[in-house]
Amino acid sequence: MSAHIAVVGSINADMFIRMPVLPQRGETVAGGQPHWFPGGKGANQAVAAARLGAHVSMHGAIGDDEPGQMAMANLSDAGVDLSFVKRASVPTSIALVLVEESGENQIVIAQGANDEVEVDSAAVSEANAVVMQNEIPVAAMLEAAAACQGTLIVNAAPVRELPSELLSRIDVLIVNEHEFEAYGRPTRGVVVVTAGSGEVVAYQDGQIAARATPPVVEAIDTVGAGDTFVGAFAVGITSGSSLQETLTRAVHAASLSTLAHGAQSGMPTKEQVDDFIAQTN
Ligand code: RIB
Fold first, then answer.
1. CB contact set of 111 (below 8 Å; sequence gap of 6+)
2. In 3-state terms, the chain is what percent helix, strand and coil (to 5)?
């Protein structure tokens, strides 16, 4: 039976606007047509893990609105259990995603329902792994961490201060290079440091334990690649793979995810990752 992964996190509707160059402070630039896509680091990671074959439950919140329905439809199509998604009294959170021709992006989040996430401790305690990010209130993260009986994986993005009681409970911390520095290069447990298209390094108690370089692809859209990595990592670790095998599969999944527009559209299945690994090695 596949592992049960509980994702306690954000659900957003992403509005993408493409433009030649991102605006400077105080500047207005002309962009292309706006496009809506399902997003949010929590929902993205849930979809990524479910596409790869895990049993995933989503613990989050949406508003009673169209953006919320769009986000739920994609989660549902991926087979994610939505029993623990709350209908909040405020609108679904919206991410405004600005992407320039070079692929560089800027994201602004209008916090809505994500601020009302509630944790069903009994349900969370049944999962083999709990996956969280920094787009929901710290109080909800603390509750989920306390309930977690399995592996606690935290993608501490975007950077914000986290209480020491949470940091000391984390089994696997996943951060990018900037977040790694911001959290003071933690030296306990497993810490995985991603670097966009560069090499991913996993540390175990401060020592390098595994590394993997994402295969080069002609990326169309890198938004959500980090979330694909986190979802794939959770699937690997909960299915008993080694840290090295888990990293290798996760970087391949993340590269594949950049071949379509929007955070979730390009997230691969297990078979697609298997084929891609066979092609690139
Ligand atoms: O990691 C990408 C995600 O960050 C986007 O989908 C957006 O919603 C923001 O949360």
1. 93
2. 35, 30, 40
How many angstroms is it from 221 CA to the middle of ligand 1?
12
Q: Whose CA is nearest to atom 10 of ligand 1?
A: 40
Look up residue 184 and give its amino acid: G
* Residue nearest (by alpha carbon) to ligand 1 atom 2: 224
pLDDT digits (tens, 9 = 90+) for 215-228: 999 998 999 999 99
What local confidence, expressed as pLDDT, does residue 106 receive?
93
- Helix, strand or coil for residue 61? strand
DSSP secondary structure code for residue 154 in this structure: E
Q: Which DSSP state fits 216? A: P
Angle 160-126-128 from CA coordinates, rounded to 5°: 70
The domain locations on the chain are 4-22+31-280
**Residue 128, helix vs strand vs coil:** coil
Q: Tell me the per-residue pLDDT of 33-72, one tens digit each, with 9 for 90 and over.
A: 999 999 999 999 999 999 999 999 999 999 999 999 999 9
Q: What is the mean pLDDT of residues 28-34?
A: 96
Instruction: Tell whether omega for the bond before 158 is within 30 degrees of 0, i.e. cis.
Output: yes
Whether 94 and 112 have beta carbons less than 8 Å apart is answered as: yes
Strand residue runs (E) in the chain: 4-8, 12-19, 35-39, 55-62, 81-87, 93-100, 105-110, 129-133, 151-155, 172-176, 190-194, 200-204, 207-212
Report residue 47 as tokens.
């979809």
**Residue 134: HSE in the Cβ half-sphere, 13 Å Cα cutoff:** 16
Nearest atom in ligand 1 to the alpha carbon of residue 135 is: 10
State the CATH architecture for 4-22+31-280. Answer: 3-Layer(aba) Sandwich (3.40)
Residues 14/95, Cβ–Cβ less than 8 Å? yes
pLDDT at 145: 98
